[in-house]
Every structure is written in structure tokens, then in C-alpha cells.
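Aggregate trends can hide what the representation actually does to any particular protein. For completeness, the protein is quoted in full, as a sequence line and a line of C-alpha cells.
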Amino acid sequence: MSTRAKFNIGEVVRHKLFPFRGVIFDIDPEFADTEEWWRSIPEEVRPARHQPFYHLLAENENGEEYIAYVSEEHLEPDTSGVPIRHSQVEEFFVMYDVERHTYEIPSEFIN
């Protein structure tokens, strides 16, 4: 059974266990990657499958950027007010709202 997502597209979040943060650009209602990817996660930190999983434009503390796939239980809001520097941000979002710690989705993509 899946649950409603706690975070939204455009929200800036940080990983609870590892030093990276990112902006959410897609959400799966529950785990939707490969079994190989699932088993590559060490058992002691492997999250439950039946929860939302988030696709992030991520950056680590060294400024390296990548795409991350993270379970809801391993995320928390990032309240630093610092925009994400990922080079693909402008492909998904139009502006960053410092007070809300979120990126705005272009109006043509809102239902």
C-alpha cells in the first residue's frame, strides 16, 4: 500500500544519511527502479519499498551534480535558502522562491 507523498515537485530537500541535497522533479508513489538497484543498497539503510520515491536534481557538498532516486524516509526539508546549482534546474523550473524553499513549475506543466 502506498501513501501520499510528503514532499512536492519543486521542493528542495536534503538526504538524512548522506551529504547531498536536491530539488524534486518527479515522484513515484512507491519504489519503481530495478531489483539490482534495490539490492545494491546496504541492508542496514535499505528503505521500505512501499513509500514514495523521489527523483532529484542533486548536488553533493563538493558541488558535483547528478540525478538521485531517494525514498521519502531518507529525506527532510532543506531550509538553507540556498538554490540548487544543478545545470538542469532551468529545464524543469522557472524560478526559486527563497522564502518557501521551492522552485516554481512552468505554468504550462500545471494541471
About this structure: The chain has two helices and seven strands. The mean pLDDT is 93.
